[in-house]
Structure formats: C-alpha cells, structure tokens
C-alpha cells in the first residue's frame, strides 16, 4: 500500500508539473489583458474634458453648430482672421498674437438662410493638451494616427514662405483630420462628417500656399 501511495504521489507531482506552464501562461495572459485595459482606461480618464477631441463633434469646449456668440464668451475676440461671402475664419493664439503659438482656428458661417446667427462649421486646435480619448493629438507620429484611424487619406499639401510643408490627412467619414509636418501631427481639425476639411470657403491655412 505504501509503494502504491508513493507512485501515486509521483504521478500527481508529474501531472502538476506538466500543467504548470500552461496555467502560468494563462495567468500571465490574463494579467497582461487586465493591465492593457487599465492603461487604456487611465489614458481616457487623463484627458481633460475641456480638452477632449471628439471626431465630427467637438474640440474641447468648442463644438460644431455652436453659436459664435458663445465662442466669443469662451475665447474672447479672435487675434486674426478673415471673412467673405457670409463665412468667417477666426484665429486665437496662446500668449500674444505676435507669438502665433498653438492657434485655435474656427471656421463659421450663417446657420441658415435667415443670415442672422453664425455657427461653428469646423474647428482646428494645435495645443498639445487637446487629445482624443485614445490619446491622439499633436506630437503623435503619422504611423500611430494611421493605426488609430485606418480611413485617413492625404487630401491636401501646403508650403510656407520658409519652404516648410504641411500635409493634411483626413478621415472624411469620421469628421477628423490631422496636419502632418515632418511625419508628426501639428494640429487636429474637427469637421462635419462626410464633408472634407478642405471643403470650407476660406483657407484654413491662410499663411500657407496650397500645392
């Protein structure tokens, strides 16, 4: 009986040893999955709601369809801009207008045929605090953006007097576009879904020449 018990113990030990790697792997995979989920959730929670970018809807506190009177209450008077044919382009800079740092560019037009109230049709932001829920924003590489938005297509290219080049990658159906300079995002544009960012009447890059 002792001899039988001895062999039984050996068999149980061997069985446990054989199952251990698979069990350990399953536990490790589970831990990795949980960690990935936690990282994703933390990343989303770390995006300030006042800086959250939502494709086809809003960039922080500025949202599509918002009355320009409300925009003025939030941002004040624009530092620069242009207007023509019932449309307007307003530009707000961080710091002084001379710095031209981290511009917020808003394209607006009359809400309806009554031509009384102007509303936001498109908004572009460059400050690094503005992010999508999954962390996309300025400073992110083009490869990461293409992974997050597979439908992105290059739609426009612009050149400055200093010969710098900016390319616009737009996910028209989702309502979001990204300015790319030297393979890195320099601005995010939120626009009406199924209408490209370059469909606005006034140029969204007034100091740049379209190629």
Termini separation: 90 Å
The overall strand count is 12
The helix/strand order is HEEEHEEEEHEEEEE
Give the C-level CATH assignment of the largest domain.
Mainly Beta
Strand order of the largest sheet: 4-5-6-7-11-10-9-8-12
Q: Estimate the mean pLDDT confidence.
A: 81
Question: Which features characterize this protein?
Answer:
211 residues; alpha+beta; protein yfey like fold; 2 domains; three-stranded antiparallel β-sheet; 3 helices
Plain-language structure description:
Helices cover 28% and strands 32% of the residues. The protein has 211 residues and is an alpha+beta fold. The longest helix has 44 residues. Strands 4-5-6-7-11-10-9-8-12 form a 9-stranded antiparallel beta sheet. The N terminus is likely disordered. It has 2 domains: 46 residues; 162 residues, protein yfey like fold. This is Lipoprotein.
Outline the fold blueprint.
Layout: H1 2-45, E1 53-54, E2 58-59, E3 62-63, H2 68-75, E4 80-84, E5 87-94, E6 101-110, E7 118-125, H3 142-148, E8 153-159, E9 165-171, E10 176-181, E11 184-191, E12 209-210
Antiparallel strand pairs: 1-2, 2-3, 4-5, 5-6, 6-7, 7-11, 8-9, 8-12, 9-10, 10-11
Describe this structure in a few short sentences.
This is Lipoprotein. By secondary structure, this protein is α+β, with helices and mostly antiparallel strands.
């Amino acid at each position: 009986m002792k001899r039988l018990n001895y062999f039984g113990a050996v068999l149980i030990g061997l069985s446990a040893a054989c199952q251990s790697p698979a069990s350990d792997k399953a536990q490790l995979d589970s831990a990795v999955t949980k960690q990935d989920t936690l990282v994703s959730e933390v990343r989303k929670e770390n995006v300030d709601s006042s800086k959250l970018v939502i494709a086809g809807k809003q960039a922080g506190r500025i949202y599509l369809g918002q009355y320009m009177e409300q925009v003025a209450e939030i941002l004040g008077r624009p530092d620069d801009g242009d207007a023509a044919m019932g449309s307007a382009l307003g530009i707000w800079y961080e710091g002084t207008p001379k710095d031209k740092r981290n511009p917020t560019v808003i394209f607006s037009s009359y809400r309806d045929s009554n031509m009384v109230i102007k509303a936001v049709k498109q908004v572009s932001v460059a400050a690094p605090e503005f992010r999508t829920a999954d962390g996309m924003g300025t400073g992110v590489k083009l490869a990461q953006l293409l992974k997050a938005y597979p439908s992105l297509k290059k739609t426009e290219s612009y050149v400055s007097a200093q010969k710098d080049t900016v390319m616009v990658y737009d996910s028209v159906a989702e309502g979001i576009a990204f300015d790319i300079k030297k393979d890195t995002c320099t601005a995010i544009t939120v626009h009406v879904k199924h209408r490209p960012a370059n469909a606005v009447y006034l140029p969204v890059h007034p100091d740049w020449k379209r190629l």
